[in-house]
């Protein structure tokens, strides 16, 4: 008879609580800072910007910061996989993270000092983000791998536990005690997170960095692109060169587009065209590299397609902390009475709904929805969940667009109307984000766990890049003229545009999911 270990149901690793507590405190610090960033920029730091342009500039700064925070995972993944290992990389980058929070609290009225603090937080938060989730996966092997899904859900639940209280309390602290206190408390929580992580140092499974690999992804890709066959051209190389040329043009356009848009677009073009070109000629790498290495590259390319199709979801999700707050600022806020306690909801506090609903929806899905689907013969696989999640985000933006239409028509709207789109968007998040962590780790080859998790977070960068591009395009007179012809306001048009973007992507994602073959890349035994 098979034991629990052979079935993958072995005991939970004892070091997991240290990582989960660390993550809950770190997420409190991150979301506590992030959720008051847009209101602080509009009300305090950007007062020198003309009033009519201030909201747009605040959204630009916010999404630029988010791009940075989800771009630096590439650096963190490289440092962990090739040089220092996950534990040391997480610990040392976390110290930069704490220093960034200190800068926000100290330089509340100094633009350069405040932006330097945002840079340090982007470096620290982004650098450790993929590594912590991959570090969780490292604590499991074939004997207890089935516990990983439960832990990833608990991991995500605790992240949102911290985020909930941050979203609820930080706007009040900003309003009542000012930015020094509001930005200082998240810094103290981050320092606590580092301490807890350090206390577990002797209990962790530490998978060492991979040595230089002659059969790495980049080397296999280079071989595939450059290899020649008698009588055949190199169409894949031509496609990759188009990507290089496009990236150079994008960098040159940074002067007019802005450096962030130019640099991120250049990276996207390199990855997209380089990946397509490599896929076209990948078989040419056989004989030069082991079949296992070639198939590993093929697996990575397939994973990157999934990640690319998730980017529209992030373009919708992250705007709850910018576009949705801007909308909420124009809505009425009734006085609520809960058990005799009267209070008025601040626009930024509406974001507390997201983590609160996450904490409710994760157990609801696992205990009610997914068993019910299985009972009627529908297995909620990772890719099916992600497909539905993208569609839910599109529905959320249809509702938020309807609210904006009503407001544009002169109908006063209560801030409570945002409850429905928050519920839909959060269901989308649970189905996409929590699932994506599990999917990314399980599908990644052993030598590329950190890098693959970095690519997962890079999807967030690209999602926010779409937001910057759309926001930049609506400043163009030609585009504004076409929007005017629709009879919609600019903000309403953008809302329906993003809704359609997500719904179309959900359709394409679902079709691709039908062809995707899952693999199992958990470790085979104890480290």
SSE inventory with pairings:
Blueprint: H1 16-34, H2 37-45, H3 51-71, H4 73-84, H5 86-106, H6 111-138, H7 146-177, H8 179-199, H9 217-226, H10 235-252, H11 254-257, H12 259-281, H13 291-317, H14 323-329, E1 335-338, E2 341-344, H15 353-375, H16 382-408, H17 419-443, H18 449-473, H19 477-486, H20 490-513
Antiparallel strand pairs: 1-2
Helix pairs in contact: 1-6, 1-7, 1-8, 2-3, 3-6, 3-18, 4-5, 4-6, 4-18, 5-6, 5-8, 6-18, 7-8, 7-15, 7-17, 9-12, 10-12, 12-18, 13-16, 13-17, 13-18, 13-20, 15-17, 16-17, 16-20, 17-18
Number of strand segments: 2
Query: Numbering strands along the chain, what is their spatial order in the largest sheet?
Result: 1-2
Largest sheet: 2 strands, antiparallel
Measured distance between first and last alpha carbons = 26 Å
The share of residues in helices is over 70%
What's the CATH H-level homologous superfamily of the largest domain?
MFS general substrate transporter like domains
Query: Overall 3D geometry?
Result: globular
In DSSP terms, counting alpha (H) and pi (I) runs of 4 or more, how many helices? Answer: 20
Count of domain modules? 3
Structural class label: mainly alpha
CATH architecture of the largest domain: Up-down Bundle
Strand content: under 5%
CATH topology of the largest domain: Growth Hormone, Chain: A
Overall mean pLDDT: 85
Order of helices and strands: HHHHHHHHHHHHHHEEHHHHHH
């Amino acid at each position: 008879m098979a034991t629990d270990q052979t079935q993958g149901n072995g005991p939970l690793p004892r070091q997991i609580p240290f990582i989960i507590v660390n993550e809950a405190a770190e997420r409190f610090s991150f979301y506590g800072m992030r959720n008051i960033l847009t209101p602080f920029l509009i009300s305090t730091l950007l007062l020198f910007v003309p009033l009519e342009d201030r909201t747009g500039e605040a959204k630009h700064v916010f999404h630029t910061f988010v791009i940075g925070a989800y771009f630096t995972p590439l650096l963190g993944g490289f440092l962990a996989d090739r040089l220092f290992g996950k534990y040391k990389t997480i610990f040392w980058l976390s110290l930069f993270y704490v220093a960034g929070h200190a800068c926000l609290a100290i330089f509340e009225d100094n633009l350069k000092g405040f932006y330097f603090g945002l840079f340090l937080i982007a470096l620290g938060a982004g650098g450790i983000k993929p590594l912590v989730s991959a570090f969780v996966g490292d604590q499991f092997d074939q004997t207890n791998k089935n516990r990983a899904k439960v832990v990833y859900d608990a991991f995500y639940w605790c992240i949102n536990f911290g985020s909930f209280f941050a979203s609820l309390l930080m706007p009040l602290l900003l309003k009542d005690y000012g930015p020094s206190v509001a930005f200082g408390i998240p810094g103290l929580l981050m320092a606590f997170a580092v301490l807890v992580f350090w206390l577990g140092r002797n209990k962790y499974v530490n998978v060492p960095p991979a040595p230089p690999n002659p059969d790495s992804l980049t080397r296999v890709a280079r071989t595939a692109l450059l290899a020649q066959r008698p009588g055949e051209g190199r169409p894949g190389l031509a496609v990759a060169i188009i990507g290089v040329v496009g990236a150079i043009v994008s960098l040159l356009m940074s002067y007019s587009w802005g450096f962030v848009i130019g640099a991120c677009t250049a990276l996207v073009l390199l990855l997209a065209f380089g990946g397509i070109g490599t896929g076209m000629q990948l078989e040419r790498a056989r004989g030069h590299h082991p079949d296992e290495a070639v198939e590993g590259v093929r697996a990575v390319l397939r994973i990157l397609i999934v990640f690319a199709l998730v980017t529209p979801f992030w373009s919708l999700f992250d705007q709850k902390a910018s576009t949705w707050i801007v909308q909420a600022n124009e809505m009425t806020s009734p006085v609520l009475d809960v058990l005799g306690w009267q209070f008025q909801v601040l626009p930024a506090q509406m974001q507390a709904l997201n983590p609160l609903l996450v904490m409710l929806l994760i157990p609801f899905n696992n205990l009610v929805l997914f068993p019910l689907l299985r009972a009627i013969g529908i297995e909620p696989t990772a890719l099916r969940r992600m497909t539905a999640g993208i569609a839910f985000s599109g529905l959320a933006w249809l509702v938020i667009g309807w609210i904006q239409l009503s407001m544009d028509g002169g109908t006063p709207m209560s801030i409570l109307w945002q409850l429905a789109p928050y519920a839909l968007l959060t269901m989308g998040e649970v189905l996409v984000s929590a699932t994506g962590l599990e999917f990314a780790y399980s599908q990644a080859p052993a030598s590329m766990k950190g890098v693959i998790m970095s690519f997962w977070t890079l999807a967030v960068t690209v999602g926010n890049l779409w937001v910057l591009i759309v926001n930049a395009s609506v400043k163009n007179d030609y585009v504004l003229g076409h929007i005017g012809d629709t009879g919609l306001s600019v903000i309403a048009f953008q809302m329906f545009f993003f809704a359609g973007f997500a719904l179309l992507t959900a359709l394409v994602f679902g079709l691709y999911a039908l062809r995707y073959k899952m693999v199992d890349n958990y470790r085979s035994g104890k480290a």
